[in-house]
Specification:
Layout: H1 8-14, E1 20-25, H2 39-59, E2 63-65, H3 89-106, E3 110-115, H4 123-132, E4 137-140, H5 163-177
Parallel strand pairs: 1-2, 1-3, 3-4
């Protein structure tokens, strides 16, 4: 379910039946001449949506997918001169920490941060959050550890059979959603 599809009263009513909230983090940066600058944001948005749908359909688990944060720390892209929005790491960490705090205050118990860009090192934020909260835990995805498994509070990874299955469907559907410039997908 998409968090933003519901009123606050509907969210409050659904909260007891939610197994987790997904917090997708994207970025806006150059991806080469063939992809738009929002590719990482688009990809993680779509990935989280598909994983949430799969969890609901195949495991009967309900996940609230929050809107994707479209900016992150991308200082390595400044040298290109155009096509990026860079947040300082400290700003990015503060925003993510505020999102975690806000969801915990509403009663969410399992929060999973999904990074669409590899430069989002949030281990310290997650550790601080988990050390200071009882009844709510934050995790970061580990795409390399995916295995077919239901969502568990002690292990918030492993949602699909294999990452290629989901990423493959995203890549094949990409030409219909975002413009590819000079790249053919078969």
């Amino acid at each position: 379910m998409r968090y933003t599809d519901f009123t606050y009263e509907e969210l409050r009513e659904r909260l007891p039946r939610l197994d987790a909230a997904f917090i997708p983090l994207g970025c806006t940066e150059q991806q080469g001449p063939h992809l738009p600058t929002d590719f990482d944001t688009w990809m993680i948005t779509r990935l989280c949506g598909e994983i949430a749908d799969t969890l609901e359909r195949e495991h009967g688990q309900s996940v609230a997918v929050l809107p994707t944060l479209p900016f992150g720390p991308t200082p390595e892209h400044a040298g290109f001169g155009f096509g990026y929005v860079n947040l300082r790491q400290s700003t990015h960490e503060a925003v993510v920490e505020d999102v975690l705090q806000s969801l915990a205050a509403q009663g969410f118990s399992t929060l999973v941060i999904w990074r669409g860009c590899g430069q989002h090192d949030l281990g310290a934020v997650i550790d601080r959050f988990n050390a200071s909260h009882q009844g709510c835990a934050a995790y970061r995805e580990d795409i390399r550890a995916w295995r077919e498994a239901p969502l568990r509070h002690d292990r918030a990874v492993g949602f699909l059979e294999e990452p290629r299955r989901c990423l493959g469907s995203l890549v094949h559907g990409f030409s219909d959603v975002a413009p590819l410039r000079g790249l053919k997908i078969e």
